[in-house]
Amino acid sequence: MLSTLERPSERSYPKVRHAIPAIEWPAFADDIDAIMALKERRNAVILAHNYQTPEIFHCVADIVGDSLALAREAMNAKADVIVLAGVHFMAETAKLLNPSKTVLIPDLGAGCSLAESITPEDVRLLRQSHPGVPVVTYVNTSAAVKAESDICCTSGNAKEIIESLGVERVIMLPDEYLAQNIAAQTHVKVITWTGHCEVHERFTAQEVRELRENHPGIVVLAHPECPPDVLAEADFAGSTAAMSSYVDKRRPPRVVLLTECSMSDNVAIQHPDLEFIRPCNLCPHMRKITLGNIRHALETMQHEVTIDERVAARARLAVERMLAVK
Ligand code: 13P
Ligand code: SF4
Question: Each residue of 211-224: pLDDT tens digit?
């Protein structure tokens, strides 16, 4: 039996005390202690996306980041087991890049509205309608859709990826808004699909104007999955990692992050002296991951992510081409 001070949960509480009241902590502590012990027993590493809740992000994750960082870290992971605290496409990307590892996702239902918006058949039809035009696929897609693509991109590298192809036109799928937002920054013509992120499509330009009126001096950061008129009203647009590093470097005294709201909680914890305005749009898929099911995943080694090798070989190529550019 560990004494109180030897319990990892006791050591991690100071990191999240601004976000989790002491009275609620015992409900998390047992799972945190169990997860830390299981990680050692299984030789496992936990990769957590920036949208994971503070008790996951700050207390049990080994590596945190945006989709691009998680892909890179997954590729270099030495542990036998990778637990992906994020959504299914992120776990698939980890498996593609490090196929000899066991990749676990704590809830198989953690999907993504963008990944749901397009099928491999849709991509094949798009290619037929636009012969010779390369397909650039956002990582928020299934491995089967990636397999139909020339190259992948994330919100952190989309412009560089498109421009690296040296062509006049690309098909960029499936996020219509991300594609339009990137098209506004480059000379390359972008053919779009009609997928949307169910979290970011809810932000409106009117909401940004109201935020500015109600919170004078506020700095508005937005994820490029937001509609273009929202980005037009924002001070900065970038991936979750880019928004986080904007706050680290520029330290705006009053700030709003137009993105999934657990991300604001995580960044606010690191900057207790800054004022965060927090409109709360939750991603129901990210919310499916909990301490309880991370613990269960490590106890039972479920749910293991597998990808048909014929699909995986082609999908891997598209992701590796991306990583070779940026
Ligand atoms: P990032 O790659 O910017 O972390 O975005 C992933 C995502 O799902 C945003 O909704
Ligand atoms: Fe998908 Fe949007 Fe959730 Fe990101 S926030 S995982 S894009 S549904």
Answer: 999 999 999 999 99
Name the closest-CA residue to atom 2, ligand 2: 197
Report pLDDT for 50: 98
Closest C-alpha residue for ligand 2 atom 8: 112
Nearest CA, atom 6, ligand 2: 112
Pocket of ligand 2 (CB under 6 A): 87, 112-114, 140, 197-199, 225, 260, 283, 285-286
Name residue, tokens 């109600």.
Answer: 214
Q: Are 98 and 80 in contact (CB under 8 A)?
A: no
pLDDT of res. 6? 78
Task: State both tokens at 172.
Answer: 């960029």
pTM of the model: 0.96
Tell me: the pLDDT tens digits for 137-156?
999 999 999 999 999 999 99
- Please work out, in degrees rounded to the nearest 5, the angle formed at the alpha carbon of residue 66 by the alpha carbons of 92 and 220: 140
Spell out the domains of the chain, with CATH numbers in brackets: 4-110+286-300 (3.40.50.10800), 115-197 (3.40.50.10800), 200-277 (3.40.50.10800)
